[in-house]
């Protein structure tokens, strides 16, 4: 390889590498709003977003309940739902893990 050819190919390679590094990767973030996920322009209830809503409501009551722990540990979700499951925002979600609620009936 001659010096002249090397001088011509190095800038092209540097520009290609810079373009590759400057391109931002696609973000695959789940868009949740009040327990619903945006899918193809519509909002549908998904377990992922419902668990995130339970975590947000629990945080509003002062309970340290990360969404990942609620998703990965059904017993922890049941415990959180026993504490705040009567909140109207998550009552239906908590009915799955605590079907009888806290009432006497």
What does this 3D model show about the protein?
The chain is mainly alpha-helical. It has a domain at 26-95. 53% of the residues lie in helices and 10% in strands. It has 5 helices and 3 strands. The protein has helices at 3-22, 47-60, 67-72, 74-84, 91-95, and strands at 32-33, 36-39, 42-45. It has a 3-stranded antiparallel sheet, with helices on one face. Helix 2 (47-60) crosses helix 4. The protein is elongated and about 80 Å long.
Strand portion: 5-15%
Radius of gyration, CA atoms, in whole angstroms: 25 Å
Overall body shape: elongated
Question: What is the number of strand segments?
Answer: 3
End-to-end Cα distance, whole Å, is 86 Å
Helicity, as a percent range = 40-55%
Q: What's the story with the biggest beta sheet?
A: 3 strands, antiparallel
Average pLDDT works out at: 82
Question: What are the defining features of this structure?
Answer:
105 residues, mainly alpha, 5 helices, 3 strands, 10% strand
Concise summary:
The protein has helices at 3-22, 47-60, 67-72, 74-84, 91-95, and strands at residues 32-33, 36-39, 42-45. By secondary structure, it is mostly helical.
List the helices and strands and how they pair.
Layout: H1 3-22, E1 32-33, E2 36-39, E3 42-45, H2 47-60, H3 67-72, H4 74-84, H5 91-95
Antiparallel strand pairs: 1-2, 2-3
Helix pairs in contact: 2-4
């Amino acid at each position: 390889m001659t010096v002249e050819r090397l001088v011509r190919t190095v800038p092209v390679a540097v520009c290609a590498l810079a373009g590759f590094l400057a391109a931002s990767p696609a973000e695959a973030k789940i868009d949740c709003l009040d327990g619903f996920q945006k899918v193809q322009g519509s909002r549908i209830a998904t377990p992922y977003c419902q668990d995130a809503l339970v975590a947000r409501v629990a945080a509003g009551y002062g309970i340290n309940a990360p969404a990942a722990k609620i998703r990965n540990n059904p017993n922890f979700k049941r415990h959180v739902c026993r504490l705040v499951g009567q909140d109207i925002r998550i009552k239906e979600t908590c009915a799955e893990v605590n079907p009888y609620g806290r009432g006497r009936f």
